[in-house]
Amino acid sequence: MPPKNTIRIAPSILSADFSKLGEEVAAIDKAGADYIHIDVMDGHFVPNLTFGAPVVKSLRKTTKKIFDVHLMVTPVDPLLQSFVDAGSDIITAHVEAGPHIHRTLQAIRAAGVKAGVSLNPATPIESISHVMDLVDLILIMTVNPGFGGQSFIDLTGKISAARAMIEREGREIDLEVDGGITPQTAKMCIQAGANVLVAGTAVFKDGPGKYGEYIQALRG
Ligand code: DX5
Ligand code: ZN
Which ligand minimizes its atom distance to the CA of 203? Predict the structure, then answer.
């Protein structure tokens, strides 16, 4: 279990009001978000479309918080530089999104930002054992990516296995979970070793007046 003071909350703006995205990002910043989780979907790797680098660039003006950019796109390599230029702090690519995750992670790091790797629910944790030296963040999907508001898939065994791999690596690597995170499932994930919790519905569901309370509830 990670120490309590290292738990970070990353609200996913997928569940924000898109008609006022800048205000929404400023509101979660003020409400105590640690990372701003930005879900980029291509309608191809996942069955939904969201936004691209120009939107990330505009949002960059609204906060100094860490931009945690989750790319659910394929091919991913041609888009990396545009997300770096837009002001991303962490860029995460899916291990399933192409044949060369090693090259993708190298490219992200070479561009000067932190590199994350994400795994869909069906993908075994061993698939990243040979890229551990290249990652700053591991993102375990606890739903099939594409939509907010889905039910949590219990992959706590996989989260624990990832935490053990991080311990063996012997340096700081974020272990993030994404999908169906509520105060209850957050607790299970933290106990299994996660230290960054992505939450869309659980933060945004009742509007800005509740963001602070709901972010705090996820910290446990
Ligand atoms: C799913 C996205 C998630 C999503 C989580 O494909 O990667 O970040 O917004 O939404 P909730 O918290 O509602 O499951
Ligand atoms: Zn996400």
Answer: 1
Assigned CATH class of 4-219: alpha beta
Nearest-5° Cα angle at 136, 130 to 142: 80
Q: Which helix (H) or strand (E) holds 22?
A: helix 21-30
Residue 178: CB within 6 Å of ligand 1? Answer: yes
For atom 9 of ligand 1, which residue has the closest CA? 148
164 Cα–ligand 2 center, Å? 23
Phi and psi at 84, nearest 5°, equal -65, -50
Q: Which pTM value belongs to this model?
A: 0.98
Answer whether 10 contacts ligand 1 (Cβ < 6 A): no
Name the nearest CA neighbour of 124 among 155, 99, 168, 163. 155
Given a cut of 80, whether residue 102 has pLDDT beyond it is yes
- Provide the 3-class DSSP secondary structure of residue 204: helix
- The tens digit of pLDDT for each residue in 57-93 reads 999 999 999 999 999 999 999 999 999 999 999 999 9
- CA distance linking residue 114 with residue 20, whole number of Å: 28
Q: Peptide bond preceding 54: is omega within 30 degrees of 0, i.e. cis?
A: no
Mutate to test the pocket of ligand 1, among 9, 12, 71, 139 (most ligand atoms within 8 A of CB): 12
Where do the H-state alpha helices sit in the chain? 21-30, 53-59, 80-85, 101-110, 156-169, 183-192, 201-204, 211-219
State the pLDDT confidence band at 204, using cuts at 50, 70 and 90: very high
